[in-house]
């Protein structure tokens, strides 16, 4: 028998934590959507250039998210057990490590950006545009990573409002600057793709600066503390490394996958990126909020020593997620045509963007399964299983099955649609199996015991 009072109390707590996260991600995806819409006003080559450059832009994003995953796991667990100084030392290390990792990316972007786009087999104009945009994105890498790690460190304490305000403000700044600088609104020069990239750079600098100031001030529960233990550093890296590999497995698979799309034309590639941008804008804020909040709640429950409650939270959040994402997926399938039409008026591109959007809509139910269970595992510090899920899905199904069906068996773009759905189904199956049968609760207990040896 389901204890409805307990369930609704949990969902209420989750809602209070998740709405700021959802709003934060809505602003973030809106920023990227504005980039795509503005690029589409120039030509399909601009959309493709941004899409290909974003493949490399995933590197600083993945570094920030992976260190942020380690930070949120340790922050939530240490908040649950009342170990504030250990928590503050851990998040300080995460921020410093992230900034240092981002510095070499600035140089790489300045020197190798054109070559990075050209190696994907893009047309000459796409290489020129994409290389220019990528150089600006990599220039923002250190600030991007710091902003991500700082936000997730705050979320681990249960403060989801401060990251929302900071990130939301930066995203609005980015969107306004993109329109102004790219299109030359008012007295601003018309900079095209340079304006789109420059807007992102300015917004990332602002975001990182405010997040660091918030942590250093009395506005938030967190504070910076001088690191004193390599054991905390080791834990942070052990938790973060599989998460980085998880994200990069998808990103690396996207390189040959985009080359596969380009076999069928620039319009097909642009259509895929439009479809992906649509589902990320519509559903992304919700499933990312569910993932983050499940991590927070599971981590804090484990910090309090209640593994049974942590397990209950995972299943309860999954039930809510499946229903929510199923409804949103149905809406995407039904509204694919008018929504895709906002992003392009090129008939050939639109003809593929509609079915790509519908494919992502069908896949939403699998997102509804994967993200809460993966979030629960990450909150425990178990980041290997989500990595296995996405690596297998990305290489075996998104890339391998898509190539086999579309080229090997001659199905064309339809084979790619099938491969995408199979990819997300794989994510869901592996995450459920990991949550049910792995020793994630015991692993979390071991990590906390190790940190308990660090003197407060």
TrEMBL record:
<keyword id="KW-1003">Cell membrane</keyword>
<feature type="transmembrane region" description="Helical">
    <location>
        <begin position="415"/>
        <end position="438"/>
    </location>
</feature>
<keyword id="KW-1133">Transmembrane helix</keyword>
<keyword id="KW-0472">Membrane</keyword>
<feature type="transmembrane region" description="Helical">
    <location>
        <begin position="132"/>
        <end position="149"/>
    </location>
</feature>
<dbReference type="Pfam" id="PF01554">
    <property type="entry name" value="MatE"/>
</dbReference>
<dbReference type="GO" id="GO:0005886">
    <property type="term" value="C:plasma membrane"/>
</dbReference>
<dbReference type="InterPro" id="IPR050222">
    <property type="entry name" value="MATE_MdtK"/>
</dbReference>
<keyword id="KW-0813">Transport</keyword>
<dbReference type="GO" id="GO:0015297">
    <property type="term" value="F:antiporter activity"/>
</dbReference>
<feature type="transmembrane region" description="Helical">
    <location>
        <begin position="312"/>
        <end position="340"/>
    </location>
</feature>
<feature type="transmembrane region" description="Helical">
    <location>
        <begin position="191"/>
        <end position="216"/>
    </location>
</feature>
<feature type="transmembrane region" description="Helical">
    <location>
        <begin position="94"/>
        <end position="120"/>
    </location>
</feature>
<feature type="transmembrane region" description="Helical">
    <location>
        <begin position="352"/>
        <end position="375"/>
    </location>
</feature>
<protein>
    <recommendedName>
        <fullName>Multidrug-efflux transporter</fullName>
    </recommendedName>
</protein>
<keyword id="KW-0812">Transmembrane</keyword>
<keyword id="KW-0050">Antiport</keyword>
<dbReference type="GO" id="GO:0042910">
    <property type="term" value="F:xenobiotic transmembrane transporter activity"/>
</dbReference>
<keyword id="KW-0406">Ion transport</keyword>
<dbReference type="InterPro" id="IPR048279">
    <property type="entry name" value="MdtK-like"/>
</dbReference>
<feature type="transmembrane region" description="Helical">
    <location>
        <begin position="36"/>
        <end position="56"/>
    </location>
</feature>
<dbReference type="GO" id="GO:0006811">
    <property type="term" value="P:monoatomic ion transport"/>
</dbReference>
<dbReference type="InterPro" id="IPR002528">
    <property type="entry name" value="MATE_fam"/>
</dbReference>
<feature type="transmembrane region" description="Helical">
    <location>
        <begin position="387"/>
        <end position="409"/>
    </location>
</feature>
<feature type="transmembrane region" description="Helical">
    <location>
        <begin position="161"/>
        <end position="185"/>
    </location>
</feature>
């Amino acid at each position: 028998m389901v204890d409805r009072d307990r369930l609704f109390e949990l969902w209420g707590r989750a809602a209070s934590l998740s709405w700021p996260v959802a709003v934060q991600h809505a602003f973030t995806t809106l920023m990227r959507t504005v980039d795509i819409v503005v690029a589409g006003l120039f030509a399909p080559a601009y959309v493709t250039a941004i899409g290909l450059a974003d493949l490399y832009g995933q590197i600083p994003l993945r570094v920030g998210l992976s260190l942020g995953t380690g930070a949120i796991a340790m922050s939530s667990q240490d908040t649950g057990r009342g170990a504030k100084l250990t928590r503050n030392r851990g998040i300080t290390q995460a921020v410093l490590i992230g900034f240092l990792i981002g510095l070499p990316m600035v140089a790489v972007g300045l020197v190798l950006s054109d070559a990075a786009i050209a190696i994907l087999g893009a047309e000459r104009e796409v290489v020129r545009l994409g290389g220019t945009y990528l150089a600006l994105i990599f220039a923002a890498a250190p600030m991007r990573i710091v902003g991500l790690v700082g936000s997730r460190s705050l979320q681990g304490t249960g403060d989801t409002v401060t990251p929302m305000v900071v990130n939301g403000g930066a995203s609005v700044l980015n969107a306004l600057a993109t329109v102004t600088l790219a299109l030359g609104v008012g007295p601003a020069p018309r900079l095209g793709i340079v304006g789109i990239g420059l807007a992102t750079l300015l917004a990332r600098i602002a975001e990182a600066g405010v997040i660091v100031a918030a942590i250093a001030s009395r506005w938030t529960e967190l504070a910076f503390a001088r690191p004193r233990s390599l054991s905390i550093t080791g834990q942070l890296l052990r938790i973060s490394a599989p998460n980085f590999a998880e994200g990069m497995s998808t990103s690396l698979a996207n390189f040959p996958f985009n080359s596969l799309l380009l076999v069928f034309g620039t319009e097909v590639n642009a259509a895929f990126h439009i479809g992906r941008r649509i589902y990320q804008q519509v559903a992304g804020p919700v499933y990312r909020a569910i993932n983050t909040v499940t991590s927070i709640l599971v981590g804090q429950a484990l910090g309090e020593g209640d593994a049974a409650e942590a397990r209950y939270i995972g299943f309860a959040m999954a039930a809510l997620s499946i229903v929510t994402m199923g409804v949103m997926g149905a809406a995407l399938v039904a509204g694919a045509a008018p929504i895709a039409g906002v992003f392009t008026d090129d008939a050939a591109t639109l003809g593929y963007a509609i079915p790509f959007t519908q494919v992502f809509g069908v896949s939403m139910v699998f997102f509804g399964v994967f993200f809460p269970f993966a979030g629960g595992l990450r909150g425990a510090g178990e980041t290997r299983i989500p990595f296995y899920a996405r690596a297998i899905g990305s290489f075996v199904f998104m890339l391998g099955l898509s190539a086999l069906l579309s080229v090997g068996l001659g199905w064309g773009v339809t084979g790619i649609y099938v491969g995408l759905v199979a990819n997300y189904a794989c994510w869901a199956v592996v995450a459920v199996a990991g949550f049910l049968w792995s020793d994630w609760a015991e692993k979390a207990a071991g990590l906390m015991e190790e940190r308990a040896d660090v003197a407060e």
